[in-house]
Amino acid sequence: MSFSVVVIGTQWGDEGKGKVVDWLTQQAQGVVRFQGGHNAGHTLVIEGERSVLHLLPSGVLHEGVVSFLGNGMVVSLPDLLSEIDALLARGIPVDRRIRISEACQVLLPYHIALDQAREKRRGHAAIGTTGRGIGPAYEDKVARRGLRVVDLFTPQRLEAQLFELAEYHNFVLSRYYEQPEIDPKVVLADLVSLSERIQPWVCDVGAALAQMHADGQRLVFEGAQGAALDIDHGTYPFVTSSNTTAAQAASGTGLGPGYLEHILGVTKAYATRVGSGPFPTELLEGAGPVLAERGQERGATTGRPRRCGWLDVVALRHSVQVNSLTSLCLTKLDVLDVFETIKICTAYRHEGQVLLRAPIQVDHLNACVPIYEELPGWKSSTAGCCDWRALPEAAQRYIERIAELVGVPITLISTAPDREAFIVRSHPFQDAPSLTETVLDVCE
Length: 444
Ligand code: IMP
Description:
Layout: E1 3-9, H1 17-25, E2 30-33, E3 42-46, E4 49-53, E5 66-69, E6 74-75, H2 77-89, E7 98-101, E8 105-106, H3 109-122, H4 134-142, H5 155-176, H6 184-198, E9 202-203, H7 205-214, E10 218-222, H8 248-251, E11 262-268, E12 271-273, H9 287-294, E13 307-309, E14 311-312, H10 313-323, E15 327-331, E16 341-350, E17 353-355, H11 362-366, E18 369-376, H12 393-406, E19 410-414, E20 422-424, H13 437-443
Parallel strand pairs: 1-10, 1-11, 2-5, 2-10, 5-7, 6-8, 7-9, 11-15, 14-16, 15-19
Antiparallel strand pairs: 3-4, 12-13, 16-17, 16-18, 19-20
Helix pairs in contact: 3-4, 3-5, 5-6
Bound molecules: inosinic acid.
């Protein structure tokens, strides 16, 4: 018997998924990323020590857990290896724990240069990407000209593929964007030397995961970014270039949707967004800067300040639908400890109408004015609280009200950055057929 949990960001990313995945993986045997690349920045705080992971799954710090990079990812080899080397230098033998899909797309220097050139050209209309080349790498995948990890191990063909790709991208870089060309010989030499290092980790990830599942092992699927950044369901075009929602956990790993047993959505107790694009509940003054400061809201990848606002239940309900969430984890509750009253956006007002669903056009969404419900704050510390009964009544009411508005139970609450700072009302693995006494003990 086996069980799997998919962890999904329900907002614009940065919900605290890294901590949740790391915590869940204590009771799993495998953890897998299924989309995105090093645009993600997953921060873990373990016994006071902070680690930021970009490509490696957030469960990689656990011994005895296999960490997979699924076929839905775009992988920059230099960035992957420098992340691995940094952990090796800290004495964490991650090299023994990693597996990479042979079908992952390889993110190349061309993609990074194009992403940055494009953003520069867009000026005020820029998406605010992380500048890591994610969009152009996915474009090559969909255009069927991308390099996959498996291609790295057939040198003659690799050279031909890369040179053709380089001709195309250098043309665009130099003629359209007036940027320097990138020498494919240098790129090739780097790829060849780096691919030697990754070769032992390359495998058929789908087959490996299916085998683990059949053997009764527990799997955690780690989403990156969040549902509102999904290429289909997010605030297009201000989105990332992959599907960030739960169904991608299947197609991005080589399994079918039947393998996805529990979908856990992660939401902050308020809302943040990094980069451009609509954000109806954004607060430029008043509570916004307070949330930013108390929540230390800076992007883990780019260091950019995050925009902050009250929780948007219209967006969260959409997220519940597109992900078919089983349960929710609410993070950073303690950031709200200081407020006299706390607002929840329950609907939008647009051209005299009350909307319960967000309009699809960005300019319409930009014109929406949030309709708020105001709840009393608790004005006392919840930081590090691990017991539901010890929470102030007003905090309990706030959490229950969100659950009621979105129709999904909030079963986990994170109250501080550290791994163990969770209130566990029910554990996602609790439904697992093979749950043992030991597991229950760990949940307590
Ligand atoms: P890209 O993924 O670098 O192309 O950026 C597209 C949009 O997604 C931008 O608004 C980024 O700020 C946002 N984004 C990408 N990755 C993350 C993340 O891990 N957290 C939050 N926002 C992200």
